[in-house]
């Protein structure tokens, strides 16, 4: 590892300045002018650039995958700001690996363009219709797939979906744009592309297929049948802790001698398990550490139920107590003990081993990663969109545990802590800023639940019928009452001693 050293005049990042960067910074060794596109990636956030783009970059460093370069894309107006930042530096990204032993930096060059963000998504549709594009990949967050949170089915009533069904030639959503491009490809005889979700969803390929095919069926049933028969939707499990970028991260890049408007920091761990189901070919990701498998379900279950659920175990308690980072939560004795007890007693029994790893060892691995003090991963980022993350990561375990007669006390306490956090204030009286797409509604119900705990779990769109399960309902009410009466730390201590 190489630690950053102060540089008096950071070099603005661009293709023209790569040779001027300090020797300690690893740069692309391939000719970026010779790259041709093969992938459109929708949702060019930090995680994509630290994960999928990095794997492709490593292949390119070996002289491979030169015809698989990434074209970035977005479908929301706020994506335009990222496009401007990245295009100003030729779509290059500085990745800074944060390790307690020291940090290192490399410049990743596998993305070669970023499409304009336009109403109706014309540029995106045209690019995906190009037969050179063989994979369309997405990182649009767990809440972006128009899923009914209770049934897991397609939410056909959402206004965005209704818009795209009425005006399929000018879609609002990424999925509508994919369908429009596939319509053009079919008409031209170009064949399909593989659609690859890289979001934290159990069966993310299956869910992506559900969304695309169901939306297509609303406007063009014949096209929906063709997509279902011809396109592939590989499942995958993705894993790397990637904090948000702010001034501190830009300063880190400057410390390496790079003026990067959008650098990305990440931990010294990555994992990508991919179902090998690509209808139009794929890069050889397995040459650079990805795992190709016939079935990724076990890997997905382990990661979502231990790491992603574990994030929620930590972040809600940490936010209430004013602890700013996940590493800080792991340093707090009460939260740390809470994390380990819930994992050991209530989650691990519902996680099967995968090749090379059992659930208990994975908990230990995740705990070490969460405790890395070099990763400034904020509780606010991790707690964001709890209405999707609790329904996706925690409540399936609750239902399974209830069905099997397994313990749920700690899981009920996790939900009570989320309800307390959504009241919008910390225990020191400071304000928790809105942090969920449904924040106003959650705050209102959380305020009501202070006196009537059942009001929180009566939110059927989140909890379904769990409010009618006496064991879970009684545990939840008891914990929320204790949190409001005696405080979060008292509740954590009571659970630890139970």
UniProtKB/TrEMBL annotation:
Residues annotated as domain Mannitol dehydrogenase N-terminal: 38-286
InterPro entries: 6-PGluconate_DH-like_C_sf, 6PGD_dom2, Mannitol_DH, Mannitol_DH/Oxidoreductase, Mannitol_DH_C, Mannitol_DH_N, NAD(P)-bd_dom_sf
Chain ranges of the Mannitol dehydrogenase C-terminal domain: 295-480
TM region positions: none
Keyword ATP-binding: no
GO molecular function: oxidoreductase activity, acting on the CH-OH group of donors, NAD or NADP as acceptor
Domain of life: Bacteria
UniProt keyword annotations, A-Z: Oxidoreductase
Name of the featured protein: Mannitol dehydrogenase
């Amino acid at each position: 590892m190489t630690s950053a050293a102060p540089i008096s005049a950071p070099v603005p990042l661009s293709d023209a300045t790569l040779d001027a960067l300090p020797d300690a910074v690893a740069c692309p060794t391939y000719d970026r002018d010779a790259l041709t596109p093969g992938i459109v990636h929708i949702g060019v956030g930090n995680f994509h650039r630290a994960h999928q783009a990095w794997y492709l970059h490593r292949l390119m460093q070996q002289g491979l995958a030169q015809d698989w370069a990434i074209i970035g894309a977005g479908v929301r107006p706020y994506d335009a700001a990222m496009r401007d930042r990245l295009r100003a530096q030729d779509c290059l990204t500085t990745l800074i690996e944060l390790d307690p032993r020291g940090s290192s930096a490399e410049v990743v060059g596998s993305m070669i363009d970023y499409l304009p963000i336009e109403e109706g998504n014309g540029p995106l549709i045209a690019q995906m219709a190009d037969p050179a594009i063989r994979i369309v990949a997405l990182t649009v967050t767990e809440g972006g797939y128009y899923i009914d949170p209770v049934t897991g089915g397609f939410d056909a009533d959402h206004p965005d979906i209704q818009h795209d069904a009425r005006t399929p030639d000018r879609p609002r959503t990424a999925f509508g744009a994919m369908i429009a491009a596939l319509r053009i490809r079919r008409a031209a005889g170009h064949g399909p592309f593989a659609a690859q979700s890289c979001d934290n969803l159990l069966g993310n390929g299956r869910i992506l297929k559900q969304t695309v095919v169901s939306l297509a069926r609303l406007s063009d049933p014949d096209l929906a049948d063709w997509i279902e028969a011809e396109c592939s939707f590989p499942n995958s499990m993705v894993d790397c802790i990637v904090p948000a970028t702010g001034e501190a991260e830009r300063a880190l890049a400057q410390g390496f001698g790079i003026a990067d408007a959008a650098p990305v920091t990440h931990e010294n761990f990555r994992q990508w398990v991919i179902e090998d189901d690509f209808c139009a070919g794929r890069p050889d990701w397995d040459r650079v550490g990805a795992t190709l498998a016939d079935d990724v379900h076990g890997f997905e279950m382990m990661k979502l139920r231990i790491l992603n659920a574990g994030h929620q175990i930590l972040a809600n308690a940490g936010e209430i107590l004013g602890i700013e980072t996940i590493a800080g939560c792991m340093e707090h004795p009460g939260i740390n003990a809470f994390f380990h007890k819930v994992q050991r007693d209530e989650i691990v029994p519902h996680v099967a081993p995968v090749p090379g790893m059992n659930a208990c060892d994975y908990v230990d691995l995740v705990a070490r990663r969460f405790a890395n003090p070099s990763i400034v991963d904020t509780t606010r980022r991790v707690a964001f969109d709890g209405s999707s993350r609790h329904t996706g990561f925690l409540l399936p375990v609750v239902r399974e545990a209830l069905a099997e007669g397994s313990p749920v006390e700690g899981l009920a306490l996790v939900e009570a802590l989320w309800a307390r956090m959504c009241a919008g204030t910390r225990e020191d009286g400071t304000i928790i800023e809105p942090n969920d797409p449904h924040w106003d509604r959650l705050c209102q119900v959380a305020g009501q639940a202070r006196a009537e705990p059942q009001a929180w779990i009566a939110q059927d769109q989140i909890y379904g019928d769990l409010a009618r399960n006496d064991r879970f309902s009684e545990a939840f009410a008891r914990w929320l009452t204790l949190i409001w009466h005696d405080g979060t730390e008292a509740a954590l201590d009571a659970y630890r001693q139970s």
